[in-house]
Design brief:
The complex is a heterodimer. By secondary structure, chain A is of the alpha/beta class. Chain A folds into 2 domains: 3-192, Thiamin diphosphate (ThDP)-binding fold, Pyr/PP domains (Rossmann fold, 3-Layer(aba) Sandwich), CATH 3.40.50; 198-324, Rossmann fold (3-Layer(aba) Sandwich). Chain A contains 12 helices and 14 strands. In chain A, strands 3-2-4-5-7-6-12 form a 7-stranded mixed β-sheet, with helices on both faces. In chain A, strands 9-11-10-13-14 form a 5-stranded mixed β-sheet, with helices on both faces. Chain A has a two-stranded antiparallel sheet with strand order 1-8. In chain A, strand 2, helix 2 and strand 3 (53-55) form a beta-alpha-beta unit. In chain A, helix 8 (215-225) crosses helix 12. The longest helix of chain A has 15 residues, at 6-20. Chain A starts with a strand and ends with a helix. By secondary structure, chain B is an alpha/beta fold. Chain B has 2 domains: 14-360, 3-Layer(aba) Sandwich (Rossmann fold), CATH 3.40.50.970; 366-406. Chain B is 50% helix and 9% strand. Chain B is built from 16 helices and 9 strands. The longest helix of chain B is centred in the last third of the chain and has 29 residues, at 379-407. Chain B starts with 14 loop residues before the first helix and ends with a helix. Classes of the chains: A alpha/beta, B alpha/beta. The A-B interface holds A 29-30, 32-35, 37, 55-62, 85-86, 88-89, 124-128, 267, 296-299, 301-305, 308-309, 314-315, 318 and B 90-91, 138-144, 159-161, 202-208, 233-236, 240-241, 301, 306-307, 363-366, 369-370, 373, 378, 380-381, 384-385, 388, 391-392, 395. The structure holds thiamine diphosphate (TPP) and magnesium ion. Thiamine diphosphate sits between chains B (120, 159-161, 200-203, 230, 232-234, 294, 298) and A (29, 58, 60, 82, 86, 89).
Chain lengths: 326, 408
């Protein structure tokens, strides 16, 4: 099994999707000769030509809007939004059009558009390059939203997103683009269903749910918690819409405590949705309130202090301590 | 000729200039890009444009001032690039090659005008008196702003492409209203002002630019759209954004547009002064396309060898705005070796001061940033701030405990 970075794994997923289906095309800013600012599309224009890997005019609403039109004729456009903070010119097209056409047409129309968005912070960048806007999209019915935390998922989520007849947003954790891991491009294994959560570390005393960039952080926190004699289970959520509540509930029924961690601000974030559903489903199993770890209610801070804003091992351990204190 | 333009919208423009604008609307004649150019690549001045006379009226002092600022900003740009390479800045957005477009247009503004830059207008900032070290706060990652726009009428940088352009039109609409209210109240409105909206060839494709132009035309807002066509939007050539000369779009909205040699500081200054004066006198917007070249990388994180040829870069080096103007000043006897030596020394001093400023920036403070989210008290922010302070103080206590233990 080859070992590759997350960026290379997504690149391989895009390449194989382009090769498998002539209706697949990529659109975005600087994805051609440059191969994208993170080189995720590197080499694809050379291999498939500029009609399949399209350097579009610089307009996100145009990218997504024309992708909708293309998809109505059976094409499967895969759009790259250059950074999380630059998706908003396309917000209208995504939320009022892309998300709704299947419902509005009473199921007669499908719009299989994939939108790839590098997201999250921790890269020391300037404004608008480190945000986590996933809740804004998860709130919109009609969109499926997934986020890989490792290269194998990066490959298979890319493939599955493109194959899906629903619009899918893939949030790619940009600070993990260089994370290496084994990728089996012939057998998805547990990654077959991108909408299922994975228990990535088993434990008995508490559950930490994380996704995307924070999965390695949650795993490190669980490891550190063993020093205090705590056995912590870690769930990689993988899909943000739908959310696999069955897997989370089953874990909480076993451990009795839940901490949810994401980089996005906690207020109005997915942690709140998870806390609420879990308290409805497993109230009697809970030994403590569900505790969230996330960003503050403020614009993403400047690079020099993002370390104080982003959830880290200590912040997750502090939340676990609070859960254990009940 | 003049009949090609919808003359009702262009009543104020003399026929001779209308003809000049019309001829500019064609991309090229015989391999030559049609644009207002007063200084050729060798720095020779040419008469024959509507704008020649204006440029000729500048004093030796003013001419040397233009050179001085172009040289200073180039030196500053070199220093900022070095600071990034040395790890003192997270990122830098170089502007080398665009000195004439920025100094020429910035110098055409008056103090009461208001400027909306993108993220590359360091030269314009210099002409507005922004303390240049302050520009580096964003790139050192200590601030998302850095300077007080109300002091210089130079707005904060905007990194979301084209988002500042509608703000510029709205600001111009406010200037219009201010003047109307003053007139209605019999008050002196002061010097009329106008607004400059900067954006790039790439950003010109964003919907915000379209909507801005519609509003500006509809309300006849006193705004000058200043598009620096530096040929590239990161790796995408300008032809992807527009099949026709970009400035031709203006006609479709119902206001004049023109292309100027963005590497000719005299031409840029002349056309921008004309457009601003026209805007200030209530005749509405103008689109200026400054045809120039980004000589360096898009940012310090970019590698242009991936997408463009060095032959192209060499071609544009021959059109360099700073050396071109130096040739002009020398040939016309406006400046001598001593002047150029002085400017170089002044540039070094500016670079040294900027470096000193950067290294002395106070580190940012998360609590302070949280306090700035809202103008009025907000319970959630207050709660999270209290939590944050207590959480951080836990670490301090632990640290202190550690150090005192270590001291025993
Ligand atoms: C809405 C939005 N989309 C994408 C980006 C990413 N981006 C930053 S600069 C740039 C190219 C801009 O080109 P241009 O407008 O020509 O200005 P230049 O950088 O050449 O000065 C891109 C795509 C952004 N900042 N904002
Ligand atoms: Mg450009």
């Amino acid at each position: 099994m080859p070992t590759m970075t997350l960026a290379k794994a997504i690149n391989a997923g895009l390449r194989d999707a382009l090769a498998a289906d002539e209706m697949v095309l990529l659109m975005g800013e600087d994805i051609g000769s440059l191969g994208g600012v993170y080189r995720v599309t590197e080499g694809l224009k050379a291999e498939f030509g500029e009609d399949r890997v399209v350097d579009s005019p610089l307009a996100e609403s145009g990218i997504v809007g024309t992708s909708i039109g293309l998809s109505l004729r059976g094409y499967r456009p895969v759009d790259e939004i250059q950074f999380d903070g630059f998706v908003f010119p396309a917000f209208n097209q995504i939320t009022t059009q892309l998300a709704k056409l299947h419902a509005r047409s009473a199921g007669r129309l499908t719009v299989p558009v994939t939108i790839r968005i590098p997201y999250g912070g921790g890269i020391g960048s300037v404004e608008h390059h480190s945000e986590s806007p996933e809740a804004l999209f998860a709130h919109t019915a009609g969109l499926r939203i997934i986020t890989p935390s490792n290269p194998h998922d990066g490959y298979w989520m890319t493939r599955r997103a493109i194959e899906s007849d629903d619009p899918v947003i893939v949030f790619e954790p940009k600070r993990r683009y260089w994370l290496k891991g084994e990728v089996d491009t012939t057998d998805p294994g547990a990654s077959t269903d991108p909408f299922r959560a994975h228990v990535v570390r088993e434990g008995t005393d508490a559950t930490v749910v994380a996704y995307g960039p924070l999965v390695p952080v949650a795993l490190a926190a669980a490891e550190a918690a063993t020093e205090d004699g705590h056995s912590v289970e870690v769930i990689d959520l993988r899909s943000l819409s739908p959310i696999d509540f069955d897997t989370i509930t089953a874990s909480v029924e076993k451990t009795g405590r839940l901490v949810v961690a994401h980089e996005a601000p906690t207020f109005g974030g997915l942690g709140g949705e998870i806390a609420s559903r879990v308290s409805e489903r497993a109230f009697l199993s809970l030994e403590a309130p569900v505790i969230r770890v996330g960003g503050f209610h403020m614009p993403y801070p400047v690079a020099k202090i993002e370390g104080q804003y982003l959830p880290d091992i200590d912040r997750i351990l502090e939340a676990l301590d609070r859960a254990f204190a009940y | 000729m003049a009949g090609h333009l919808p003359t009702t919208e262009f009543d104020d423009i003399p026929d001779e200039l209308l003809d000049e604008l019309e001829s500019l609307s064609h991309e090229r004649t015989e391999g030559h890009v049609n644009m207002v150019q007063l200084l050729d690549e060798e720095g020779r001045f040419h008469n024959g444009s509507h704008f020649s006379e204006h440029a000729r009226s500048l004093s030796g002092e003013e001419l040397r001032g233009l050179y001085r600022e172009m040289a200073m900003i180039r030196r500053f740009d070199v220093e900022a690039t070095a600071l990034q390479r040395q790890g003192q800045l997270a990122l830098w957005v170089p502007m080398r090659g665009q000195e004439a477009a920025q100094i020429g247009s910035g110098r055409a503004t008056q103090p009461q005008d208001y400027i909306f830059p993108t993220y590359r207008e360091h030269g314009v900032a210099l002409t507005r008196g922004v303390e240049l070290g302050e520009l580096l706060r964003i790139f050192r990652g200590v601030s998302n702003g850095g300077w007080d726009p109300t002091e210089t009428n130079f707005h904060l940088y905007t990194l979301v492409l084209a988002a500042q352009v509608p703000h510029a039109v709205g600001y111009a609409m406010a200037l219009q209203r201010d003047a109307a209210r003053a007139a209605a109240g019999g008050r002196d409105a002061g010097e009329p002002g106008a607004v400059v909206a900067y954006f790039g060839d790439g950003a010109s494709s964003e919907g915000d630019v379209h909507e801005s132009m519609v509003f500006a035309a509809s309300f006849k807002a006193p705004v000058v759209f200043f598009c620096q066509n530096n040929q590239w939007a990161i790796s995408v050539p300008a032809q992807v954004q527009s099949r026709i000369p970009l400035h031709n779009r203006a006609k479709g909205y119902g206001f004049p547009g023109l292309r100027v040699d963005g590497n000719d500081v005299l031409a840029v200054r002349a056309v921008t002064e004309w457009a601003l004066e026209r805007a200030r006198s209530g005749k509405g917007p103008v689109l200026i396309e400054a045809y120039t070249y980004r000589q360096g990388a898009h940012t310090t994180a970019d590698d242009p060898t991936k997408y463009r040829l060095s032959e192209e870069e060499q071609e544009w080096l021959a059109k360099d705005p700073v050396t071109r103007f130096e040739k002009f000043l020398r040939a016309e006897g406006h400046a001598d070796d001593a002047f150029f030596a002085d400017v170089a020394a002044e540039g070094d001093a500016l670079a040294a001061k900027s470096r000193k400023d950067v290294l002395a920036f106070e580190p940012p403070n998360l609590a302070e940033a949280m306090g700035n989210v809202y103008a009025e008290w907000h319970p959630l922010v207050a709660e999270e701030l209290a939590w944050h302070l207590e959480y951080e103080s836990g670490f301090k206590d632990a640290e202190e405990a550690n150090t005192s233990e270590g001291g025993h």
